[in-house]
Amino acid sequence: METDGYRSLGPKTFWAFVIKNSGAASIFLLITIAVIIAKKYAGNLDFITPYVYIFNDIIFLGFVGVFVAELTAFLVSWLQYSRFKFKLDIDSFKITRGVLTAQDIAIPYRRIEAVDIKEPLWFQLLGVSRITIETTSDIGLHNDDKKDSDDEVLPAIDRRLALEIQEELTKRANTQKMSVQNG
Q1: Where are the domains of the chain?
Q2: Is the pLDDT confidence value at 141 over 50?
Q3: CA 176 to chain centre
């Protein structure tokens, strides 16, 4: 799905966004499981028996909370995923992202110092990677004492696509640096 040369992060990336945004659902699920366990073991106590209905209400509300939180995480993830695009342009690597506030980032190839791929364990299980781009300011290109590095990140992207981007960005960065130094 390309528009104006922009590409999406890949289908596996959507699930990485969902997992990242599912924190509230996990908390509701843990509380619900704890109440189910408490009900099972406390149900035989005489002083708790009249209040067992409260456990049932809490369990029901816990599952409703899990459903609502997971649905919210799913919708937020879809919005983040669908609004996060990138493009290898002629002179820069462009990223557009943001749900409530759109953000357009352009990283000139000549500023790229390193392109790293990081894969935490859960990323490896999903088949996605994180790309970190170390950049330097234009002043830093001429004077190493004033080097200022930033990290621009593609938070999650299909592993195959990450390797392609790393190779292409490294190649374009080296080519553009050589032309700037010779020009």
Answers
A1: 12-80, 85-182
A2: no
A3: 29
